[in-house]
Amino acid sequence: MNKHGHLAEFLQARRSRLRPEDVGLRTYGERRRVPGLRREELAMLAGISAPYYTRLEQGQSRNASREVLDAVASALRLDDSERAHLHTLAGAPRRRGPGARPRPERLTPATRALLAAVDGTPALVIGRRSDVLAWNRPGHGLFAGHLDPDSPDDPGGAGRPGRRPNMARLVFLGAHTRDLYVDWPAKARAVVGNLRLTAGRHPDDPLLAALIGELTMRSREFATLWADHRVLACDVADYEMRHPLVGTLTVTQQTLQSPQGDGPSLVVATADPGSPSAAALALLAHATAPRDADRPHRAAESHTL
């Protein structure tokens, strides 16, 4: 599906969630055939013609101005992340050559150095499709200690499936990760919201489409959240975790990415200094420290991803 197909679905989903009374419209008790606002009501709130809004929602208008999109966003009561997502979906689609595949995601030297610099703090590097490209020892221990620490080094290829973990799969299909988060639904919403933003930026990515299709087929919860069309730029979030090694702790997960937003992201987990959670992270760092401190961890130092 291209951007304009995503745009149509997004507008329809958001319009269906607004009731006339939410925006101060009187209905005079008439029965409504569909939930939410009608197209002409939304167009009136946005100050544009109903036929034009209909073309926009059907993906037939590809030159909407910023002012029109902002008016529609205000009428739909979108937040800042949703407004930005609307502008992305309405933008001119970037065309890829026929049959071209997206470039493989790799660690840059700068990101590799940054991961090494935070070696005492749980951290991992995530690609745009939520593949784990690398992690340090505490990051592996906190998020996926049940997996082989060297699994991010194996992306597969030549028809052979790899072992590289994918955080979206772990959240929705992995019992370990589901048990790890006390408020698993909040984590699940964050994962889906971020995937929605990525799908808007990269509508022609076949690997991303395959991941979304797989999760939709294998997880009813993912399918329900995906159909809701909510977007969420979750750069900083607090999560309570039930860790099998160090017990219950609360961490702040921060996602650091390039200003362009198109490269791998560094996810770090911290805790309030002096708190029991900070002590738990210190215990985890000690437990995952190498026996030989001078031996580099393969996952963090890998050059071929």
UniProtKB/TrEMBL annotation:
This is Transcriptional regulator. Residues 36-83 form the HTH cro/C1-type domain. One of its GO terms (molecular function) is DNA binding. Residues 84-106, 144-165 are annotated as: Disordered. Coiled coil: none annotated. Gene3D superfamilies: 3.30.450.180, lambda repressor-like DNA-binding domains (1.10.260.40). Pfam families: HTH_31, MLTR_LBD. Signal peptide: none annotated. Transmembrane segments: none annotated.
